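Give me the fold.
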Amino acid sequence: MNKYNAPMNAGGKAGALKVFLLIAALSVLGYLVFRQLKGGASYVSEPQKVQLNYVDASFQPEMDMESALPILANPYRYEREFYQLVHDFNLDLLSHVANRMNLSDSLKLLLPEFYEEQHPYFAKMIFNDFVAMTDSTSSLYASWYRSEFSNAVEAFNEVASKYTCFVVNSTLSKLIETEAGQIYVKGAAATTPCGVALMEGLAPTIGRLKEKAARKDFERSKGILQERVEKAIAELATMEVRDRKGIGASKTTKFMGLDVSSTEMEMTAISIMKVGFKLDKQFEISLNDKAGLVIVTMPEPEILSHEVYPRIDKLDIGWLREIDQSDFNKNMDLLRREFRTDALRSDVMSKAKKRAAELMDAMLTPVVKSLNPRYAVKVRFIHIGGEERKELPLGAGKKPVTAGVFEN
């Protein structure tokens, strides 16, 4: 009996060892998988409770002002670059906030990782809000009124101010413990991370962009009519919008709290706007034999032309002459933009598409039916990335101004 028991006992021990090693390997593998699911190579898998103290730090953005202005002025044309600009700027803000909060190097290394997880969501919201404030047909007007790049910077400031706190708090909350959504810090110059990002990061960057934009706008306005431009036009105008508005502006000069001089101005303007389609962007007729359709593909409608005719109804100039030439230009530009804003908010674009579909059906259906009675005409509209944008309201001038647009 002993002759056969020895080999069997040795084999049993070897089998048990193999089972133990297998279980150990599976345990290590399971732990690695758990770490990967909880954040890969991250040093922490959940927000950490840390002691925060503000320290001095300077904001060093890497934004190229020269390239940023064309991107902001043409968001559809440079959509990919716009997303990258938002990405880099947000990371610069987060890095500055982390430096001011004196976070440890290990936590700073995690900031980009946590931001990257949310960047597509952040950038999409910012882009959608930014382009919602734009109009694809008014670059020429904006250049003439020296406002193209300046308006783009104002728009970026408005949108960035809206989302900066959300971006900063959402990212830091993955890294640092919060109480009721708030991050508390200590220090002589203590403020919120949101305040640091807005006041020390966004504000000075917008200031530098505005200075650069003002110079660019002035340079463009000087050369806008230096050369004659002729081009073939392939447009289909389907709607005409006529409107009338007025604007009132007043300026008052005070001395020791008393009004010593005042100037009032009232301006009325009529607007004639044509809405339709630029067929040189997209116009295609294709046949879908299986569905029995002749498909006409056209671009989305846009403003093709806009003529504004102003008239001064009242002009009472005070002895200090508070209103100057720039005020006339700003009021004229404000009226023009109000006309465009009202038109874009109305259903004129839907009406233009409906009218275009009716025209295509009227022109093509007889020809299509003669080829095959079962064919029908279908019109579809697609978005084509534009190269221009719509304007945003300008701020007040150097002197106090009160102005308001009214329907007339």
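The mean pLDDT is 75.
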